[in-house]
Write a structure and sequence with these properties.
- The chain has one domain: Maf protein (Alpha-Beta Complex), CATH 3.90.950.
- Helices cover about 30% and strands about 25% of the residues.
- The chain has six helices and seven strands.
- The protein has a seven-stranded mixed sheet, with helices on both faces.
- The termini are close together.
Length: about 200
């Protein structure tokens, strides 16, 4: 059994699809409603992912998969980065997108380079962590497009696909996304949980 260390229903759905082929039995934080969320105090994706994975392992004794991810925009010196979920404060995500687009203004395409970055961490039943990074390069579009995905997906444009991440079918997104790449890097360790 593997605990997905997230309360984000979109992320639970995405991780469940990515992990489907492993055959591992999944539970998530909705199955453990009494556990308070840890404070993400680290300054890196890896640090926060390890912090969350170890925290939930200590609380449950289960093998845990945690990740930390975000959007890095080159013209904003890598912001919002590890602060992606907290960018702009406690505001709806549509407002976070609007704020980011406002900051970029009318910068041309060649200055709108960005990447989604993710670090996934598996802490096994013995508490040993394994770290796996993933990233995908793209551009920030001038306006949101698409209904799929979540977070910053509607403004993350993939030139080789001619669309934003939010316009991709779920299985295509999961095959090339930062989270998909990071989690697939842990498949052999996840498979070992079953074996």
């Amino acid at each position: 059994m593997l605990l997905l260390a997230t309360g984000n229903r979109h992320k639970v759905g995405e991780l469940s699809e990515i992990l489907q082929e492993t055959g591992v039995r999944l539970v998530d934080l909705a199955d453990y409603p009494g556990i308070p969320e840890p404070v993400e105090t680290e300054s890196t994706f890896e640090g926060n992912a390890i912090l969350k994975a170890r925290y939930y392992h200590e609380k449950t004794g289960l093998a845990v998969l945690a990740d930390d991810s975000g959007l890095e925009v080159d013209a904003l010196d890598g912001r919002p980065g590890v602060q992606s979920a907290r960018y702009g404060g406690d505001i709806p995500h549509s407002d976070k997108i609007a704020l980011l687009l406002e900051e970029l203004g009318e910068l041309p395409d060649d200055l709108r380079t960005a990447r989604f970055r993710c670090v996934a961490v598996l802490v096994d039943a013995q508490g040993r962590p394994t770290v796996s990074p993933g990233a995908v390069e793209g551009l920030i579009s001038y306006a949101p497009r698409g209904e799929g995905g979540f977070g910053y997906d509607p403004i993350f444009y993939l030139p080789e696909h001619g669309c934003t991440m939010a316009e991709l079918p779920g299985e295509v997104k999961n095959s090339l996304s930062h989270r998909g790449r990071a989690v697939r890097g842990l498949f052999s360790q996840i498979q070992a949980l079953i074996d």
